[in-house]
Specification:
The protein is of the alpha/beta class. The chain is built from six helices and nine strands.
Amino acid sequence: MLRVHEIFYSLQGEARSSGRPSVFIRLTGCPLRCHWCDTAYAFSGGQLWSIEAILEKAASYSTRWVCVTGGEPLAQPECRPLLCHLLDAGYEVSLETSGALAIQGLDPRLSIVMDLKAPDSGEASRNLLTNVAHLKPTDQIKIVIASRADFDWACQQADTLDLFKRVDEVLISPVWQSIAPAELAQWVLDSQRPWRFQLQLHKILWNDTPGR
């Protein structure tokens, strides 16, 4: 059984599959408390679901893309078998994870979107940097930026950890309504590094309404 906060159908708002109609499975709970967190409503609550019930709900939508997110989905041990069952069912599955919990041993068919928490999140000390060695080239790293200091930190980490050679895409995005997107875009251009700049599509379309 897993504690599920919500299962809904929407457009993927971030990462490589942005714009794809997807099923979102949001698990309850997270051990982190990022200052700019936009899913704090999922820290608690939700209902217990069996893996079979989750698969049945996912099958009610006509899409092959599924995103398992949170909270921090890996905080629930049953998340790992859920991911395997979804993959066995033929879905293209992405996992959104904070980077604070070990990703070693996850199904290699899975697409991992892993955060590195910048200093202004308040949780940079929780980054489990050994995770980087377990990423596949097809996985993605995401860094959310709230300030120029965050961006400078991100550049330093990208160089020190050789992130641009480790994975095909290193995503960088502004904290919603905290930093002007055009300002971060210019920093990306000036840095001469191959970031993939992104905005959160769901927030532009639906103003960050939960379940969309």
